[in-house]
Design a protein that fits this description.
alpha+beta, Jelly Rolls, 5-stranded antiparallel β-sheet, 3-stranded antiparallel β-sheet
């Protein structure tokens, strides 16, 4: 039998390229799920944060922050800032390049990530934010031992 389960994960971020490893929390939610094999969709609502996978270590975290600053600088001129005066035009562009969702397969309630691969959220906004991730598991529902 197949099924879908949707859960949420609440996070407090610091903004300004805050990089958060959400892998342990997603794995914890998967362990509580009735679905044992399938895919998990991780989605961040909003237009100033994004999701990806990296090796979550200090050097690479700084490298990704430096990369986005070099590629899409915070202090550049953005039409969005001129229109809305909120100073986060860069955050919208960075998030658009990263994307708001990821899909990861799992088997026997274990995420099928590489050894050095973690799921991260990057909050690009120019202020701390309360973020909610939508986590949707879909796949094979674990057989109930009592139903056999």
């Amino acid at each position: 039998m197949t099924g879908v389960e949707t859960q949420t994960l609440q996070l407090q971020t610091r903004g300004f390229n805050d990089v958060i490893d959400v892998t342990p929390e997603i794995q914890r939610l998967l362990q509580k799920s009735k679905i044992s094999e399938g895919n998990v969709l991780v989605f961040v609502p909003g237009s100033t944060a994004g999701l990806t996978t990296i090796e979550y270590e200090g050097g690479l975290i700084q490298d990704i922050k430096d990369f986005f600053q070099d590629w899409i600088p915070m202090e550049a001129r953005y039409h969005h800032n001129e229109r809305w005066h909120d100073g986060n035009g860069y955050a919208h562009l960075r998030a658009a390049m990263l994307k708001p969702s990821l899909q990861i397969p799992f088997l026997q309630k274990k995420l099928l990530l590489g050894t050095w691969q973690q799921i991260i959220l990057i909050d690009f906004d120019n202020r701390p934010r309360r973020r909610e991730l939508i986590i949707q598991f879909s796949g094979v529902v674990q057989a109930d031992e009592n139903s056999q």
